[in-house]
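Incident log, support desk, overnight shift.

02:14 A customer reports that sequence design results differ from what the structure should imply. Their input is reproduced verbatim below. On-call engineer (initials T.W.) acknowledged and began investigating.
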């Protein structure tokens, strides 16, 4: 009987904060865990992507470790998936250069994330790395011949570029890369800021509106208690007139697994205070074990580093094959035996 290989998945997350937040968890990371069941998954902490704007080296190192620890704590299982740190796998950068040379300046200039992120410094003052960021992301994906890439909606354009670059390379030099498809998680898991429910939860907004996985439980409870609610008293979902309450119900539903309609019934005749109190408990039930496990892993740095070293070794095996093929097709002279490349 022929063995049908599992579809391969690759995704990455930046270690730019000391903690992931509920939006990361419900929007993406929970999918990562679920996908381990049905796919061969590669997950990386994309530290190279974290230096495209000003950074602090000590914080980057610490955040990389804490990010990996959180991924393990929330259910990424190194026995089933390959978890690694991007900078441990030099194949990403080796492939990225070739892709930069087939990407066009014009198409990179159209990336809306670059336009947004370069607004502060202006294009003149932004790093070249910020500009080529999506090409490195393409290399992350193509190096593993990923079939699917679970990403948020904001990464759709980068994924489209990845597909274009794969197709272009394949048609010029022969079929080398799998052209990946997106995998945008179904709506409903879109978590909004607690203080500005019109905006996506984000670490770049003031911390009062953002529930971090590693927040103390008392801090989380306070953030939820202080969440913006809406006029009226009824606990019902109404995205137009009650965006705050709708968001709280959505978070409750995503974490408790109960439908919003069921929750509306559950809270019938009760007020916003009851909703917030219960939501704080629901959040704590999910987040507290993650927080505890993260701390244990961070405290056992040797074990954490062992897991990441094993992940990097496995990642290099897979990415190395792709990069060797791409270099050969691109016409680079193969280094003679004994020459390290
Ligand atoms: N750009 C992605 C983000 O900001 C992170 C990322 C980097 C990524 N490389 C990737 C996501 C490869 C998926 C696949 O969310």
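02:41 Re-run completed on a clean worker. Output:
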């Amino acid at each position: 009987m022929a063995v049908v290989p599992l579809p391969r998945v690759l995704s990455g997350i930046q270690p730019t904060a000391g903690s992931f937040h509920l939006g990361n968890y419900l929007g993406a990371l929970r999918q990562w865990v679920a996908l381990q069941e049905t796919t061969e998954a590669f997950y990386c902490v994309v530290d190279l992507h974290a230096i495209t704007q000003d950074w602090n080296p000590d914080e980057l190192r610490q955040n990389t470790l804490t990010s990996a620890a959180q991924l393990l704590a929330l259910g990424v299982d190194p026995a089933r998936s390959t978890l690694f740190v991007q900078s441990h796998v030099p194949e990403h950068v080796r492939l990225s250069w070739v892709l930069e040379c087939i990407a066009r300046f014009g198409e990179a200039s159209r990336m809306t994330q670059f336009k947004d992120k370069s607004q502060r410094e202006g294009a003149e003052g932004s790093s070249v790395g910020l500009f080529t960021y999506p090409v490195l992301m393409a290399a992350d994906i193509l190096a593993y011949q990923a079939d699917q890439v679970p990403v948020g909606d904001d990464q759709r354009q980068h994924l489209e570029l990845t597909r274009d670059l794969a197709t272009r390379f394949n048609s010029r030099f022969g079929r080398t890369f799998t052209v990946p498809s997106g995998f945008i998680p179904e709506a409903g898991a879109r978590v909004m800021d607690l203080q500005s429910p019109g905006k996506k939860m984000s670490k770049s907004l003031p911390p009062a509106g953002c529930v971090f996985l590693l927040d103390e439980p008392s801090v989380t409870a306070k953030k939820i208690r202080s969440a913006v609610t809406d006029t009226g008293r009824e606990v019902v979902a109404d995205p137009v007139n009650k965006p705050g309450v709708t968001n709280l119900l959505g978070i409750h539903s995503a974490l408790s697994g109960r439908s919003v309609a069921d929750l509306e019934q559950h809270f019938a005749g009760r007020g916003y205070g009851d909703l917030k109190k219960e939501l704080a408990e629901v959040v704590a039930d999910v987040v507290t074990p993650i927080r505890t496990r993260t701390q244990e892993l961070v405290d056992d740095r040797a074990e954490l580093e062992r897991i990441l070293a094993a992940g990097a070794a496995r990642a290099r095996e897979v990415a190395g094959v792709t990069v060797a093929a791409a270099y050969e097709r691109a016409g680079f002279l193969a280094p003679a035996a004994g020459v390290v490349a």
